Amino acid sequence: MNRFNVTTLGQFITERQNEIPGAKGEFSRLLRDIGIAAKTISREVNRAGLAEILGEAGSENIQGEDQKKLDVIGNNLFIDCLTRGGETCAIASEENDDFIILNSPVSAQAKYVVAIDPLDGSSNIDVNVSIGTIFSIYERVSPVGTAPIKEDFFQPGNKMLAAGYVIYGTSTMLVYSTGNGVNGFTLDPGIGEFCLSHPNMKIPALGKTYSYNEGNILSAPEGVKAYINWCQQVDKPTNRPYSARYIGSMVADFHRNLLKGGIFIYPATTKSPNGKLRLLYECNPMAFIVEQAGGIASTGTQRVLDIVPNDLHQRVPVYMGSKQMVEQLLDLLK
After folding, report:
1. pLDDT tens-digit map of 226-267
2. Mean pLDDT along residues 116-143
3. Consecutive H or E run containing 176
4. What pLDDT digit, counting tens, does each position of 79-107 carry?
5. Confidence grade of residue 57 (pLDDT, cut at 50, 70, 90)
6. 128 Cβ partners below 8 Å, 6+ apart?
7. How far apart (Å, rounded) are the C-alpha atoms in residues 119 and 121?
């Protein structure tokens, strides 16, 4: 990236806004609002240890998971930023039991809803491991000007207008797609802007790493056991054994695999027979991105993006990543 000839996120969004049929300036403004919220969260994450915002918040979310202080801060930041922006009528968040209707003078006329995981991997916050934000945008199905309804969110992922994630690591990076490829932007703290750094991202068809919590291997499906065993065998022609790379933060694991090639595995287990990751604001957005980058995302029995949600916090098993690797695992699951 030439530092003297950069394309900012705002410029890129404006140039590409015609990718969304019927979209006007409000869609571009919504994406920029998300970028602004991400920059604010990046600032809070980077100074967390100094500002006494590490640790537990003393509450649980709808999943029964302990909320970190930064979970609450991140959730409130996104709600506030999207409310002020006025281009969103409702938000479904991992941190809230039900969807939230945004109350601003213009939100009632907004035609978009946003599903979001404000801080994915938050259990890693206190140990300074990369965490992230995951988001997706849909056009509401309820009439503009009326109260939003759950059905606005109960759309299959193939109806998504845009999806993306932000990874807060050694640098902060925003990756998103509107259905016409995947592009990545790195935050330049000197100018306070996300700048295009990874245009037209493509996931390699074959990688050398698998991301899976092998502590759950005994309760995994037989096909997963067979695949992991195959990955660990020595075979020079196929560059095996593959390397296990599991961070425990979906955004971080996914981001590495997107850049380097690999497979992310989170199957159903005895403890979580329906899977553990949430369809609406984790699996669907990441599936949208990986498909746009040339990869595959499946539950083991069907394409993730074809599932019609029936609950805001619905969970599903997921296998996503490099095309050849996912296809091989799916064959073993049959």
Report:
1. 999 999 999 999 999 999 999 989 999 999 999 999 999 999
2. 89
3. strand 172-177
4. 999 999 999 999 999 989 999 999 877 88
5. very low
6. none
7. 6
For residue 160, give the amino acid letter.
Answer: M
Residues 6+ apart with CB under 8 A from 274: 268, 314, 315, 316, 317
Contacts for 242 with CB less than 8 Å, ≥ 6 apart: 207, 208, 209, 210, 231, 232
CA distance 228 to 211: 10
Delineate the domains of the chain, giving CATH numbers in brackets.
9-198 (3.30.540.10), 209-333 (3.40.190.80)
Residue with tokens 């109806």: 159
The label of the residue with tokens 């935050």 reads: 187
Instruction: State the sign of the Cα–Cα–Cα–Cα dihedral 190, 191, 192, 196.
Output: negative
What count of residues does the chain have? 334
pTM: 0.91
